[in-house]
Amino acid sequence: MNIGDPAEQLEALDDILKKLRTRDPAVPLIVEGVKDVRALERLDVPGPILVLNVGKNIIDFCQDVSRNYEEVIILTDWDRKGGHLCRLLVEGLRACDVKADLCVRREIVRLVKRDIKDIQSMDTLIERLRESTGSV
Question: How confident is the model at residue 88 (pLDDT cuts 50, 70, 90)?
Fold first, then answer.
């Protein structure tokens, strides 16, 4: 796939969104903030979506997650802070016996890292790609 080709990039992102929309509802997404949640909602990605930055430390957050879930999908941003949070989450969740799935995050990063650095910008990127390819 040529990720420089907007049509192929859009198709791959649509495939990822389809996976997120049809995932098991027992597997929540973890994002950094409320703007990330809003972007995913605009992309019709259903919950549960858990927000990391709600004033809790990582350990308490991971323990809370472990009370309700056995597996999560981590969708932190791919800037330096997001990468650091991702590593902390993986370690904290592993210590609480929660499986942390990073596959979707890796796919997204591979496709969009030249264009955007965070989940909250996904909806506008996809809108731009749709306009540029005429698939509005």
Answer: very high
Per the domain annotation, does 18 fall within a domain?
A: yes
pLDDT, position 107: 95
The closest of 93, 54, 101 to 74, measured between CA atoms, is 101
Q: Which domain holds residue 80?
A: 6-130
Distance, in Å, from the CA atom of 83 to the CA atom of 80, rounded to the nearest integer, reads 5
Its pTM stands at 0.92
Residue 24: CATH number of its domain: 3.40.1360.10
CB of 29 within 8 A of CB of 40?
A: yes
Residue by residue, DSSP assigns 81-125 as: HHHHHHHHHHHHHHHTT-EEE-HHHHHHHHHHTTT-SSGGGHHHH
Could you give the number of structural domains in the chain?
1
